[in-house]
Design goal:
Blueprint: H1 22-27, E1 32-36, E2 39-42, E3 47-50, H2 53-56, H3 65-77, H4 89-101, E4 106-112, H5 115-132, E5 140-144, H6 153-158, H7 162-165, E6 175-178, H8 202-210, E7 215-220, H9 236-246, E8 250-254, H10 268-272, E9 278-281, E10 293-298, H11 299-303, H12 325-340, H13 343-359, E11 367-373, E12 376-381, H14 390-401, E13 404-405, E14 407-409, E15 412-415, H15 423-439
Parallel strand pairs: 3-13, 5-6, 5-7, 7-8, 8-9
Antiparallel strand pairs: 1-2, 2-3, 4-10, 9-10, 11-12, 12-15, 14-15
Helix pairs in contact: 3-12, 4-12, 13-15
Bound molecules: pyridoxal-5'-phosphate (PLP).
Length: 441
Amino acid sequence: MSSDSPSAPNDLSAFWMPFTANRQFKSAPRMLVAAEGMHYTSADGRQILDGTAGLWCCNAGHKQPRIVEAIQKQAEELDYAPAFQMGHPKAFELATKLRDMAPDTIEHVFFTNSGSESVETALKIALAYHRARGDGTRTRLIGREKGYHGVNFGGISVGGIVSNRKFFGTLLAGVDHLPHTLLPENAFSRGLPEFGLDLAEDLERIIALHGADTIAAVIVEPVSGSAGVILPPRGYLQRLREITSQHGILLIFDEVITGFGRLGAPFGADYFGVTPDLITCAKGLTNGTIPMGAVLTTAAVHDAFMQGPENVIELFHGYTYSGNPIAAATGIATLETYREDGLFERAAELAPYWEEGLHSLRGLPHVIDIRNLGLIGAVELEPIPGKPTARAFQAFLDCFEKGVLIRTTGDIIAMSPPLIIEKEHIDQLFGTLRDVLKKLA
Ligand SMILES: Cc1ncc(COP(=O)(O)O)c(C=O)c1O
């Protein structure tokens, strides 16, 4: 490898890396230089089993031939078309495919470029929806403790992860939070936890405090991913839907992680049988290969905007790259791959095997909880006193050394493999983690 090859950069200083301990990383970099199927190739030529689908996004695995071909073809045919007051066929085609894949009540699709932008878009649509209907006092937004809704100002305001919020000033005004649902009595639950349904009733308290007529929307992740895999207690999401419907409040499901088969169904909304008014998604929409996100809405939400004169822009919002042709072509190829390869069904079929393997780690040193749903798994470790995050991060480093990519958040190890995973990969993933945990200080 030549010293100026991109796989062996000789200067790491210019790139300010996101959500990374930059100085620590640059003193001992972990570089990935290629990927195919279930594996990455590291700069030193090792095969690394992808236990995290990149960042919860490469659901169809890496270098999927149909997706690669779609990107190449589209780049040659139409690289870019203006997104405002102009159209191109692929964006419409993808929107239709997405609508067809989404729950029946979803009728419309607004394109963005990331999960964070999907969240901002959904929150703005919620506010503008009420205003369009003459209900302009509904300006409050309700999120949840430990929620992750990306990194933009709306998202961190409704989000509930303290480090993502505390450095950035006063955030959006008029935001309140539901309590999170991570309860010690649910430790080592398999699938959905039993206790904590009553936590949904807190929404009634918040509504009583502020008045329903001041609240625009409630936003939650059906399963919280980034805060360390936090599951909704049985019946919890149904109860949120009942309360929001009763009070004319929009319910937004942030499905950036749970969308596209992660739970063995197209969306978390399908898995839980609960239909929100808006769904945010990204990541798996394009298999992580080209940045793209979307907000899915019901006809009722969309139609509220379609009332004024027809020559007037109905929603003053959008991005230069909303529905970008290469992203749209990638999205089409991705959704076709999911359908034709039956990947959501595959995830559902593998989920019991995944659960079994994951929970076999119970009893290993420092393991204080294990959580799972669909092809999501988390192992929570007892923090080293005075050194939070250090123990799980060491497990991450040790697994990488042994050829397996996991992810950590705090002292929680999170895993979310591509849906093409085979049983032998599941055995390798949990077998490696077992070896690492046994030796961990
Ligand atoms: C639920 C949820 N919302 C939003 C986001 C933000 O997505 P992005 O990083 O694409 O902006 C994420 C990312 O992990 C997420 O998990």
